Automatic annotation (TrEMBL):
Signal peptide: none annotated. Transmembrane segments: none annotated. It comes from the Archaea. Residues 1-32 form the 4Fe-4S ferredoxin-type domain. Belongs to the HdrC family. The lineage of its organism: Archaea, Methanobacteriati, Methanobacteriota, Stenosarchaea group, Methanomicrobia. This is Iron-sulfur-binding oxidoreductase FadF. Its EC number is 1.-.-.-. Keywords: 4Fe-4S, Iron, Iron-sulfur, Metal-binding, Oxidoreductase. The gene is fadF_3. It is an enzyme of class 1 (oxidoreductase).
Amino acid sequence: MDFLSEHKKNCDQCGLCISVCPSYGDLGILSDLYGYLSESPKSESEPVSLPKNPDHDIRLCYTCNVCTVTCPQDLGIRKLISLAREKKTKEFGISDEQRLADPFSDNNMYKKIGEWEKPVVFKNEGKACDVIYFPGCAASCMNKVVGKSTAKVLDAAGVHYSVMSGIDYCCGSVAFGAGNKEPLLKIGQKNIDEITRRGAKILVTTCPGCYRAFKIIYPSLFGELGFEVLQTSEYFLRLIQEGKLTFKRDMTQYLKKSTPLILYYQDPCHLTRAAGIYNDPRRALQAVPHVSVANPSPQDSICCGFGGGVRTVFPQKSLSQAAKIHGAAENSNSDVIITNCGGCMKNIIESGYNSKSRLLVYDLAEFLSLACGNPPTERDDQKLIRLSNTALIHCLSNYDFNPYDG
Ligand code: SF4
Ligand code: SF4
């Protein structure tokens, strides 16, 4: 039975998915999706109409997967949205928003940013090594503090590693998630071949999208990989347990806060619900002296609003969602928000400008690098936000959101 038939048969319309969904507010989304997915085009020139109710726009889904994990029947809304996005792509072609993440398109936003600002230059690019770090487009070209800090932590632990960085080594997962599967199908095997050619035993990814691509999507499409795939938090924890990564700096004193320093760990949806990683980053943070994690489990974790293309199409909505993270962190008396995804980090920083939050925002690797005793990693938040909005303006004809310019 296909997923649509299974959904129609087994969904008892209990409404639990809607009660937790940060985007849709009524079960009419399900009947609209059933209708759209069941209908065939009358002719090539007359595609099936998308849901007309603006509250049921399929672009509103953050792909956070909260509905999937909440549904007692393992159904939810997100999988229907993914099918609808794929169908829309087949009928209407690739949209400008989907081209943004396509590494083969000149309208790729990371390529655009890379033309204005040099991507991070990592040492050991192209070398054979047991460990390869794969920062992905975001940590190479846009949220560079993530890529640079990860390299500093690996250096502090004495790891010999090689790097595959930049747009040349996009994983293809963002385009894939937006309903455009072609880039990942073209690039996936090439990435695997390159890692195999370098003789790697371990691939370390930063971005949850890259992790999901290598850990889940590639093996399902291309077969077993022949090397281990770890997210940075998993690898950092392993290095801590092996005694290779140690923390010399008292972060409470460094940040001039009282002991213990309270951290709010932001679970990235695509790492937590989509890939099951939530313990390792918390355990890595708890290895730093005098800190405590305010939210010890991912229960009730909040989507940052960045994913599923919502930040691109509905920027205000996306940033309002991210502001909820500041609220949750403040309510738990936290001093610092720790992120573990370049996209989450950018959205949380940007929403903090609007909500005038008092909280500091650090990437996991950035925080751990500081705790190792390293000097701060160079970072310019305003430039990051301005660059990404400017790139969207250049790549999309209908994007005009850039309140921080000038
Ligand atoms: S939670 Fe599952 S069963 Fe309940 S309405 Fe949503 S999809 Fe249907
Ligand atoms: S994935 Fe998230 S935003 Fe999308 S329908 Fe499910 S709960 Fe709502």
